[in-house]
Predict the 3D structure of the following.
Amino acid sequence: MKVDVKNIVLLVGILAIKFASGQPRDSLDYNLLQNPFIQIEATEAINSMYNFEFERSNSHFNYLKKQYPWHPLPYLLTSLNYWWRIVPNYENEEWDEQFLAYIDTTQVLAKRLYKDYNEIEGAFFLAASYAFEGRLYSERGWYRKAAVAGRNSLKYLKYCRGHEAYSPELLFGDALFNYYAEWIRENYPWLRPLMWVFPRGDKKKGIEQLERVARNAFYSRTEAQYYLMRLLASEENDVQGALQVAEYLNESFPNNAYFERYYMRLLYQRGRYTSVEKMGKKMLMKIDSNQVGYEENSGRYAAFYLGHIHELRTRYEIAREYYHLGIKYAEKIGATDKGYYFYSLVHLGRIAEKEKDKELAKSYYKRVKKIADRKHAARKEAKRRLEKL
């Protein structure tokens, strides 16, 4: 019989409200975002979570649940514990059920908090939990569910606005909304007719708010740094700014596969190949040793970078080994529609050309031409090289 994790976690949360041995002593016990003692209690657990020491952090989050069973904070932190198991490879659905279970319980407790005790704090946890729920649904392609979750998040986000003095945590949702409300209008013009129901955003203001959260918040600090790093790198064309954030995150959480991979990627873009080579080899060793969070998705990045570095040094035999390793990783997780897979094949074709093996080069280019999207740059390069041959 299949165990329904979602309902069990939800039931435990409801029972905790009614029968927990500890009950809030006064209204201040509902203001956990402002409580510095809770932050001290949670610091080690949160740092462990972002460093991918998930069992260690979960143990402490369980302690917080026993201490504050009526509050959504411990349940949201536990949901994040499962969320960060998903982040290194969004194709992995192993942790979806646990994540959604704790999100549900967060929402049950947050609605009670919002309605009966602390509207501002309850609204924060509702906006945050619905936002994370929507993010997962979006990654899974469940866009109707994602839209409903996003609408619910915006509903409660408005109660957080203007209350940054209560807690800098409340600025996080506003920052993301300000940025993405305009980003969607710019990048998805077909959605503009639907966007009229939402307030206008401000990308510059969103970045400034994220920077403030990254400096001043406690619970949202690392999440703000994570989004700031990505937006600076991919949307704002500020690779140096993103590199500074990535370096800090990688140094603070050296066992976080996603942070390490992103930092390595930015170093590669900046041409800092010595550092990339060192990090890439280290990452492959972590994958071989089955370290938590390190798997084929990170491996295909590292293998491609190492292959290209050795190709540039004309060490073609070593380069080939790394390119084939990257291809193997991609095929194992079904990432054969990604750029690194296509470019590994293209670079193998380049090496074959340099070694005067035209037929082998053609076979690689034909393969890319067959499987890549017609507009993909790798396919265009493969086509161009085939025509020359």
Remarks:
- The chain has three domains: 1-160, 167-236, 267-388.
- Confidence is low (pLDDT under 50) at residues 14-23.
